[in-house]
Specification:
With about 400 residues, this protein is α+β, with helices and mostly antiparallel strands. About 25% of the residues lie in helices and about 30% in strands. The strands form six sheets. It has a six-stranded antiparallel sheet with strand order 1-17-18-19-15-13, with no helix packed on it. Strands 2-4-3-11-10-9 form a six-stranded mixed sheet, with helices on both faces. The chain has a two-stranded antiparallel ribbon with strand order 5-6.
Length: about 400
């Protein structure tokens, strides 16, 4: 485990805010998500849970599994281990997937971007496996990466057996865990360029042209909806992890185990309406704001600006009053050069008194390489007083 050193400043920020309390279905608002086995409403930027109904109940997630699949795909794209214009040759195994599919044929070649559309829009099981095989070498190895990522995210009630959500023994998750996965996926903002598509075409103009239609019909009817993933099997019933934005709020709503698609959509709509109707967000720091500068005479450049990974936002109920929030910075004790843009180097934590309200990773705003011998020689003559170490 990394140890952290508390550095420099604690910013006491006065706002017309009060920490929103988590609302439990058994306490009030029983009409919200009444037809779901489990549900949760989480605000993405703050990470606050606003509503919870059996959110830790282990259930089959069906195709909502693909939220984790998409997360690993987006991470590979960010690392440039995968390119959108790269063509992938489809294996017999990938082409054999049943359920939702984009009807890939063994030996066919399709770009990563089109396969990504196939997963995000049409919930293609064949596209999911094709990308899994490209990233990890086999579906089995990709599933190991999925479960390791779940562990890294601290998800204790999730286990995957495949990247698709097709029925399998010992394949389960929870509404809470799906919301955390969705929150992590939405850090990759470009994912909504795909999940917000209502319809599109693959192989356009060819004999085997395929019309993609989003399985999430709320994309077209709910204002601000930009994703994320539906799911259905006989055992899982109707599920949906949905994302919608309004002003400084970005809500994630998860419903699992609804008997009918209409009931699922009504539950999602009621959750989102509750969140947007009762709460407002206040941005403490923007994701481009420099919150700290680190210096190191061994690096080029030798000063590095740290910015939050996403907007630092707290919520308030619309009818509630003042509170003091304290924002503190902690940095990783040891970071090796070179540093890549986006590397996580610390945290910005928001507290309301003794209670932690939000925690956002601090990341490098640009790459830092090791200084060469000439640069180090020049710097040896400078006054190093006040320099900080990484």
């Amino acid at each position: 485990m990394h140890r952290f050193i508390c550095l420099l400043f604690t910013l006491i920020i006065m706002f017309t805010t009060l920490q929103p309390n988590q609302i439990h279905a058994e306490d009030k608002n029983d009409s919200i998500a009444k037809n779901a086995q489990s549900a949760i409403l989480m605000e993405k930027n703050s990470g606050m849970t606003l509503y919870d109904k059996n959110a830790d109940k282990e259930l089959p997630p069906a195709s909502m599994t693909k939220i984790m699949t998409l997360l690993l795909i987006m991470e590979e794209l960010d690392k440039e281990n995968l390119k959108l214009d790269e063509k992938i040759r489809i294996s017999e195994h990938a082409a054999s997937m049943g359920g939702s599919q984009i009807f890939l044929e063994a030996g066919e070649e399709m770009t990563v971007e089109d396969l990504l559309k196939g997963v995000a829009v049409a919930s293609g099981n064949d596209a999911s496996v094709a990308l899994a095989e490209r990233i990890a070498g086999s579906e089995e190895e990709f599933v190991k990466q999925m479960n390791q990522k779940a562990k890294d995210l601290g998800l204790k009630n999730t286990k995957f057996q495949n990247p698709t959500g097709l029925p399998a023994n010992d394949h389960y998750s929870t509404a809470h865990d799906m919301a955390v996965m969705a929150r992590e996926l939405l850090i990759h903002e470009e994912i909504t360029d795909y999940t917000s598509i209502y319809d599109d075409y693959l192989r356009k103009g060819e004999k085997n042209e395929f019309w993609l239609v989003n399985t999430n019909k709320l994309i077209k009817s709910y204002p601000g909806m930009d994703g994320l993933k539906t799911g259905f099997t006989e055992k899982a019933k109707y599920c949906l992890t949905a994302s919608a934005k309004k002003d400084d709020l970005h809500m994630i709503a998860v419903v699992m185990g609804a008997e009918k698609p209409k009931e699922r959509n009504e539950a999602i709509t009621s959750l989102l309406d509750y969140g947007f109707g009762q709460y407002e967000g206040i941005k403490l720091h923007g994701k481009e704001e420099v919150l700290h500068e680190m210096t190191n005479p061994r690096g080029t450049p030798n000063t590095l600006a740290l910015v939050p990974e996403k907007d630092v936002v707290v919520l308030k109920k619309k009818n509630e009053a003042k509170s003091n929030y304290q924002t503190s910075i902690t940095l990783n004790e040891k970071v090796e050069l070179p540093i890549k843009k986006g590397d996580h180097l610390g945290w910005v934590t928001v507290n309301n008194g003794k209670e932690e309200v939000s925690k956002v990773r601090l990341e490098a705003s640009e790459p830092v390489n090791k200084a060469n011998i000439l640069e180090l020689w020049k710097r040896s003559f400078r006054n190093l007083a006040g320099f900080e170490k990484f």
